[in-house]
Amino acid sequence: MVSLVLLLPGRLESPLQQEAGLTLFEYLTLSHISEAPDRRLRMSELAYLANGSLSRLSNVVKRFEQRGWVERSPDPADGRYTLAALTDAGFAVVRAAAPTHLRAVRELVLDPLTADEQRSLAEIAAKLRARPVDLA
């Protein structure tokens, strides 16, 4: 199990880099923003969802801002937080990369499993995701 967890991100990243020029972390960052209401998320929540540090995320989002894919602004609900909002150009990038990522997930994770095994995997993953994790 540990070897799978360690190998899978690299295997998912390779086609993204080759076909879309994105790392897996970059793709996940754009993808999570694209799925959020109004295509905007607090940076702290985005770091958690993308499984990265706030520092790493800030560097990636800064590059995305320079490319015109993301805009940052203070959260109007609480100015202590910063929002990352996906621009139309950023949405086009993630939309173009999504089929590559989904194909890799299907080939590496879903296709080798029967329908029953896929359901079991989904149940196990949901149980593990719901478990509180101490990140400190």
Automatic annotation (TrEMBL):
A Gene Ontology annotation in the biological process aspect, one of them, is: response to stress
In this protein, which residues make up the domain named HTH marR-type?
Answer: 1-130
Q: Which domain of life is it from?
A: Bacteria
| Record's protein name | MarR family transcriptional regulator
Q: Which PANTHER family match?
A: MARR FAMILY REGULATORY PROTEIN, TRANSCRIPTIONAL REGULATOR, MARR FAMILY
Q: Name one Pfam family in it.
A: MarR_2
GO MF term (any one): DNA-binding transcription factor activity
